[in-house]
Amino acid sequence: MADAQSPDLRGSPPERVRDALRDGDPFPGGRGFAGLLRDPPDREGPVLVRDVLGRQPLFVERGAADPATARDPTAPAAWSFDRTDLADPKPVPGGSLASSAGTERVWSLPDEGPVDSESGQAAVDEALDGALGALDASGLGGLETEADGDDLAVAFSGGVDSGVVAAAVPDAPCYVAGFEGCHDIEAAREAAASMDLDLRVVEITHDDLVRAVREVAAATGRRNPMDLAIAVPLYLAAEAAAADGFRRLAVGQGADELFGGYSKVADPVGDDRVAAETVRGARTETVRTLPEQLERDVLALRASGAEPVAPLLDDRIVASALALPGELLAIDGERKIALRRAATGRVPEPVRTADKKAVQYGTYVSRELDRLARRAGFKRRMDDHVGRYLDALLSE
């Protein structure tokens, strides 16, 4: 029998979150949670909770979780899953609980040492089997509920992350967005042909880009070039899927952070983007950026009309990835080693080993924002010329 889900709590049933709070368990099953827990263990009154990786966005009115204001963040008008519902929204931090007594961190990432390579790889293989095997019937957010498989599409860029997701639901259409001739569209076409997938290409125009920038900024509150360039192609792909009648969009989010997909993780020594000097330490730093990143991506996708489904952020996969030794993350120029090994037999070899470009570059969105900025008179010699252009655009 499926767990019952509360309308005040997204991603997991109240019983599961209650147990996780009592036990301090950061990975109780599912793909994250957030919302109002009405009867938390060992506490008086309802509390707001958000899982350790912030996989579900959650906001309170600024100051509402400060005891000095004498305001209750759990009051109906003081919190929301949608930041646009609030006058001055502030995210509840990942892994935290908010109540009239204030905000406190109640879940943290495990910091145990790595397991050995053989058992680490086996755990990733098993976790991937479980998470992807349940994808077609996992509902919205990882509950064991019935779902209509016909309402699921896949965001697809032709790399191993989206490749393993698409391979798990081969009848679901795949969507890729980008400017004509960009890397992501070409890679997606080649991969989709080799996997016999239904690929639907969304070719972005400058008009699309300007419109999407405004809509994503309104939904997410982000106005900087990096956040917008990352979220806009995802938004446009999801918008096309929603227009075709697909209510859910499966995405490959989280794989780079969990499995060591960044150059700063592969070679952290001397890289000023990370403080750590080991592969595992640098990977942990990138994992800790997920709550802020996922807030942006989830809000952008919901604004498009499609609910995100992120199987690679399933608790089973997260826990197995965090336990990996450095040699299964990145070494000798190879990244996401354990994930690529687990993908053997799931996707064609060129997809399994494909290099990935950051979405803002692989779709040409960053390039075209720069072009629009220069056309509008914001020259490259100016500090943050694209940021200045976006400020002007969003102020119109």
What's the arrangement of secondary structure elements?
Blueprint: E1 9-10, H1 14-23, E2 34-37, E3 47-50, E4 59-61, E5 79-80, E6 89-91, E7 96-99, E8 102-105, H2 117-133, E9 152-155, H3 160-168, E10 174-178, H4 183-195, E11 199-203, H5 206-220, H6 225-243, E12 248-250, H7 255-259, H8 263-266, H9 279-287, H10 290-304, E13 307-309, H11 315-322, E14 330-331, E15 334-335, H12 337-342, H13 349-352, H14 359-362, H15 365-375, H16 385-395
Parallel strand pairs: 9-10, 9-12, 10-11, 12-13
Antiparallel strand pairs: 1-2, 2-3, 3-7, 4-5, 4-6, 7-8, 14-15
CATH 2nd-level architecture of the largest domain: 3-Layer(aba) Sandwich
CA distance, first residue to last residue: 52 Å
Order of strands, main sheet, comes to: 1-2-3-7-8
What proportion of the residues form beta strands (DSSP E)?
A: 5-15%
CATH C-level category of the largest domain: Alpha Beta
> Helix count?
16
The mean pLDDT is 92
Notes on the structure:
The protein is built from 16 helices and 15 strands. Strand 7 and strand 8 (about 100-105) form a beta hairpin. It starts with 8 loop residues before the first strand and ends with a helix. The strands form 4 sheets. A 5-stranded antiparallel beta sheet has the order 1-2-3-7-8, covered by helices on one side. Helix content is about 40%, strand content about 15%. Helix 2 runs antiparallel to helix 11 and helix 5 packs across helix 6. The longest helix has 19 residues, at about 225-245. The chain is of the alpha/beta class and about 400 residues long. The protein folds into 2 domains: about 10-105, no CATH class; about 115-360, Rossmann fold. The relative contact order is 0.14. It has helices at about 15-25, 115-135, 160-170, 185-195, 205-220, 225-245, 255-260, 265, 280-285, 290-305, 315-320, 335-340, 350, 360, 365-375, 385-395, and strands at about 10, 35, 45-50, 60, 80, 90, 95-100, 100-105, 150-155, 175-180, 200-205, 250, 305-310, 330, 335.
